[in-house]
């Protein structure tokens, strides 16, 4: 082949930059409420869509999980923001958030706690937390999850965390954004279960709560009687995918952490290049 023909063929086969991606953006989960039957933390907001148009660069931020009695932090991709999960109630109500925290078993021992709500975000990012109850001890509501609301507490029974939502953008089906289980001063020895998708188990009168799972946006479990304390929420995640006929990303800046490092895809499967971001913040160029 003539030299000019080789050059022309090389230019024709060069991959072009992507102009649209499918995204999953999960925020950090809320921390569980403090002892005396603290509510389960709400899951981080869960947002996903396909064929989202992108420009030449965009920001990605991974939200941290909330410490005990603290809301989770937002996760960001381009113009999309998922809201941090609401903290579990330490004094009646759970906080609003992507999903809301569960309500405490009211510290005065006589009045039921009040459920949090999902914050009124549009589009909806999650669900409400469950209500608490002060009968026969103190028992808190579960934190809301991406799919299911946190369960209300009942006599002797703290509320379990709401279930999360399964997404396959990573190349495998993974469930994200489960709510934390409510704490209980006189309930099951093992504590209330967290919701599927990384929600942490609530504390009881014999065990401490469990933290939300890292990079799921799961809510932390609520606390019981000292020393059986509440736990933090899990950090969020951002996953982007686009056709494997397009070029790799050009730069990944700042403190942004990508699974596998560098600018090559985390994995390539099913006809897609997949990028999984698990921490930090920075600018991505295409």
SSE diagram, text form:
Elements (H helix, E strand, L loop, with lengths): L2 H11 L6 E7 L19 E8 L3 E5 L13 E3 L2 E3 L82 E3 L6 E3 L60 E7 L7 E2 L4 E2 L8 E3 L2 E8 L1 E5 L1
Overall description:
Strands 1, 2, 8, 10, 11 and 12 form a six-stranded antiparallel sheet that branches. Strands 5-4-3-13-9 form a five-stranded antiparallel sheet, with no helix packed on it. It has one domain (20-52, 66-237). By secondary structure, the protein is mainly beta. The protein has one helix and 13 strands; from the N terminus they run αβββββββββββββ. The model is unreliable at 1-12 (pLDDT under 50).
Summarize the structure.
With 286 residues, this protein is mainly β. Helix content is 4%, strand content 21%. The longest helix is centred in the N-terminal third of the chain and has 11 residues, at 3-13.
Characteristic key phrases:
286 residues; mainly beta; six-stranded antiparallel beta sheet; five-stranded antiparallel beta sheet; 13 strands; elongated; disordered N terminus
Global outline: elongated
Briefly note the structural class of the backbone.
mainly beta
Query: Percent of residues in beta strands?
Result: 15-25%
Order of helices and strands: HEEEEEEEEEEEEE
Would you report the number of β strands? 13
Total helical elements: 1
Q: State the helical fraction.
A: under 10%
Largest sheet: 6 strands, antiparallel
Which residues form runs of ≥5 with pLDDT under 50? Answer: 1-12
Distance between the termini: 33 Å
Average pLDDT figure: 92
């Amino acid at each position: 082949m003539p030299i000019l023909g080789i050059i022309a063929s090389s230019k024709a086969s060069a991959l072009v930059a992507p102009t649209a991606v499918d995204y999953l953006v999960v925020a950090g989960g809320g921390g569980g409420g403090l002892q005396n039957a603290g509510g389960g933390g709400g899951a981080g907001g869960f947002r996903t869509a396909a064929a989202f148009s992108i420009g030449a660069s965009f920001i990605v931020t991974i939200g941290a999980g909330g410490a005990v009695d603290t809301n989770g932090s937002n996760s960001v991709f381009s113009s999309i923001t998922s809201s941090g999960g609401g903290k579990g109630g330490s004094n009646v109500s759970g906080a609003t958030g992507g999903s809301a925290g569960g309500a405490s078993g009211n510290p005065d021992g006589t009045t039921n706690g009040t459920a949090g709500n999902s914050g009124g975000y549009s589009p909806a990012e999650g669900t409400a937390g469950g209500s608490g109850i002060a009968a026969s001890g103190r028992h808190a509501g579960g934190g809301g999850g991406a799919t299911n609301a946190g369960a209300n507490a009942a006599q002797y029974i703290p509320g379990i965390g709401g279930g999360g939502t399964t997404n396959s953008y990573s190349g495998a089906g993974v469930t994200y954004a489960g709510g934390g289980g409510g704490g209980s001063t006189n309930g099951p020895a093992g504590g209330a279960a967290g919701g599927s998708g990384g929600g942490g188990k609530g504390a009881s009168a014999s065990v401490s709560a469990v933290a939300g799972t890292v990079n799921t946006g799961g809510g932390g479990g609520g606390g019981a009687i000292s020393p059986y304390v509440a736990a933090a929420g899990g950090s969020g995640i951002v996953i982007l995918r686009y056709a494997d006929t397009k070029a790799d990303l050009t730069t990944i800046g700042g403190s942004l952490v990508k699974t596998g490092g560098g600018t090559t895809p985390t994995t390539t499967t099913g006809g897609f290049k997949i990028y999984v971001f698990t921490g930090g913040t920075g600018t991505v160029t295409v």
